[in-house]
Amino acid sequence: MPFLFQRPHAAYAYPAFHDPPALAPDVARVPEHVWNALRLPAQERVALAIARNAGDSTDSASGLPSITCWGVLDRDLKDVSVPRRWQIEYPKIFPSGEASTAGPTHSVTAVQPVVLSEVIFAALSDEAYACASADTDTFEEWLLAGDLVFREEATYTWAREVDGSSVSLSPSLQYKLVMAAPVRQEATSEDNIPTIPDGDLDGQLEPDASGSEAGEFEIGEDFLAGSVLRTLSLTSPPGTPPNGALPNGVTSGATHTNTGLHLAQPERTYKAHPLQRHISACEDECAVYVRTSELSRIGVLDGDWAVIRSDKETNFRLARVHARDDVATNAGLYLSPQLVHNLQSQAGLNWNHDICIRPSPFGSRRPTIPTAKTVTIARVASAFSTDRTYQPLFLQALQSYFKDTTRLVKQGDVIAVGINTDDVLRRYNVSEEEDTEEGQEDLDLDINPSGEHNELVYFLITNVEHSVPSRLGDVSSPDMYVGATVGELGCWVDPSATRMVQTGIEHSRVPDMARYLSITQRVLPPEDVIPDQDTAFGKLLALASAALNRRAVDYHLQLSILLQGPRGCGKATTATWVAQRLGIHLLEVDCYDVIGDTDAKTEGTLQARFERAASCSPCILLLRHIDAFAQSTQALEPGKEPAVGEVLRDCIAGLQPSWNLTGFPVLLFGTTDSHERVPPKILSCFKHEVVFEAPGETERHAILLSALANCTLAPDVSVKDLAVQTAALVAADLVDLVNRAKAAAIQRSLDTSSSDAYSVFYSGVPLTAADFDLALGKARASYSESIGAPKIPSVSWDDVGGLAHVKADILDTIHLPLEHPELFADGLKQRSGVLLYGPPGTGKTLIAKAVATSCALNFFSVKGPELLNMYIGESEANVRRVFQRARDARPRHGPDRQSIAG
């Protein structure tokens, strides 16, 4: 209860930066109004936690959730001032180039220093290790005398006195904090002295100065001439990249000619990387982020405007180039997912995005393109945009998107805004008389959104009216003039001069903006650009992509897929990933909610769900637990199936007229634990079936990485080892394992620290190997209550007394095929199993565990009486489940003999 009601006071501010003296401790200077807002006493210093606001938060896996430091009062400041080097060391929390006009972006909270139970330092040189080992007491005094702040992955330089006369600032005396417990960072003092174990960690060296900073800048006459002599042709031969543009920033030396115009600057082609978080709320939709070393190759300076297009399209746009090495971690162009989508006419089908870029004649000046007089915006049909209840929310979000800023848009652009659906219950009371779906309404830009976003609504710019500018500044290119006057490069939307009209509903594919707008997702989608076709995700993606082809409507393809697999294997999650990858909507329907008191009500509810899905096309209609239709509230004659099967067939056939009208299909997915539980008439409605199996070791590793994407792992955690130890667990079990580990880590940190819970959370709680061991033990204990969970035991042959002849026979049967599979390559039969018999207590189970340990096999122990059940057929079903779980626990690669011992 104190955690809920004793929340510490927080103040909000925009950070300023200062340059502290060399080797000075991390200290934040706090202005008086922030100090008073935190209700701090007039003392010398306090421990503070500085974090980005909730809407700007990023994954803690890529950086610390907040920065803990000492804070001192400075009455001469207006903003909280922090060391400038934090912009380089912690770019996720303190991004560079952020304008202060957006308001407070960070929160400041007073915390209690957490006592560190252990810290592990790695000496970055032999000299540093020798000095620390020779004089441990002096080393500890240095750590505490300077009031340092311990942070994982931080490097500390020891200013060591030599002969009592001078101070050595040699960079060789540097130490890296590899691990801290129970939290990742804390301000130290004499009250919380850490334990510094002896020893050196090999391989912990200073990172080399590779990257864009170390790259050579190529500045030639093309780069210098491009700033003053730039002509542009906005037309290109269809189907052929201009200038012979090649991927990865390579371009051919040929000069493209069009109507007698020559390009002074050739295009360069780069791979597009969609941003995973927003960098600037005002500029991301017309900004491109690159490495500093790429500026000279493109022919622009930081802040210059460039012309970009998709390598397979002639849709040109203006974009401002920013050099951000903290954002552009790899080669290529980093753009918002919305901008990547708007560059392509077939968005969603092409997953290898290549963008062509060339300098524009505007330089760093504001492009002299026309300002729109009127912009007509239509809602993109989705489950929320077609719901009258949420209309005030997404109209308010649209108004906030254009308020107080000038946007660069083009006709056909898709705009994504986030809404908080909980605001409907708190702030709005919408009646049907207030609905304006059929009419038009002018948008006044004077409402601010509130709350954290949890859903997305999309809009489509259907028309842009603008006047022809009389002049284009210093631009003398006729192609540039024509392109600008017809809106080829876009138009400015100025809230003070542009009239905006929202009307109608359009059907369109949309970009995946959930992660970019910090909307919580159940499980992050896989990052593979082209998934494996043998996986369930790859099969679903291939089938759905075929139905979205423009000519698929002419063949009357009714795509209906049955997803069959054990509960928790990720059927619904995979369908969500397919919808996100293809840019289509997802409408989930639980079939248990469809079943009514009578068959007539069930049929009416099912038809209503199909009609709603048709109004949101392109859409995936996900019918969960399709086997629920086998139930009926009315008595059926023997051998007669429920009438809902015929209704389902009619509903699927009724989707074709909607497809012909909108040009976008509705894909039907149904899920079930076993197709044997689904009536044959309902099964016949599905044209395809995709079977989900228990994930193998490689798939479990990918699932764990996805589930741990927002978690901080200690150095002693090996995700690969976790994947080996979690045999036979499905996706839901692995997510539950991660949640158990989080709970164990929080409980461990609270038990080992006397600080309050908020101070512990702000310092960062990593997941350690001990947390996963505890979580895995609890998970296996819960599974053993039913059928059991396979695991690799830890029993050696030394634990088995005697029985040498039994050991030899077993090793000949099991161990020999594992070590010498070539002996059985010619078809020699292998034994399918070994029967161990004898009185109780003679060591039969112990021998089986020893075999599993020596061969690194999963061990699965089930007692025979546990399989018996009083109900007819349940005993046989338990036996089938036991063998199915054993099959799920076998490795996916190698001989079948490597499956299980038990």
UniProtKB/TrEMBL annotation:
It comes from the Eukaryota. Residues 367-510 form the Peroxisomal ATPase PEX6 fourth domain. GO terms for cellular component: cytosol; peroxisomal membrane. Residues 561-692, 834-890 form the ATPase AAA-type core domain. It holds the Pfam family AAA. GO terms for biological process: protein import into peroxisome matrix. GO terms for molecular function: ATP binding; ATP hydrolysis activity. This is Peroxin-1. It comes from Trametes cubensis.
